[in-house]
Design brief:
2 strands, mainly alpha, two-stranded antiparallel sheet, flat, 4 helices, about 100 residues
């Protein structure tokens, strides 16, 4: 069994929106599309892990850099994640 040495601070919706530069309504939309995955606290309110800040940055890069709509971004992210998995498996085979 493992225990965290420090407590990971999670961001509420407004803090997350401020950190990522997204409007709270845009964050809600990305969650509804399944592009962001917040946890919930005891009251059922969204709490975003620090890793979700990186996820928002990735979404914004794809949206602005490639002019992809949010539905397409979901497909691209799935493909990029799958490529990462396959490359990791190839590295393991090479050892």
């Amino acid at each position: 069994m493992t225990y965290a040495l420090v407590r990971v601070e999670r961001l509420d919706l407004d803090s997350y929106a401020r950190v990522t530069g997204l409007h709270p309504q845009a964050v809600r939309r990305l969650v509804a599309l399944g592009l962001l995955d917040p946890g919930t606290d005891a009251r059922g309110e969204w709490r975003f892990a620090p890793s979700q800040v990186a996820a928002a940055a990735r979404i914004q890069r794809l949206h602005e850099g490639l002019a992809l709509n949010y539905a397409a971004i979901g497909v691209v992210i799935d493909l990029l994640d799958r490529i990462d998995e396959l490359e990791a498996a190839l590295r393991d085979l090479a050892r």
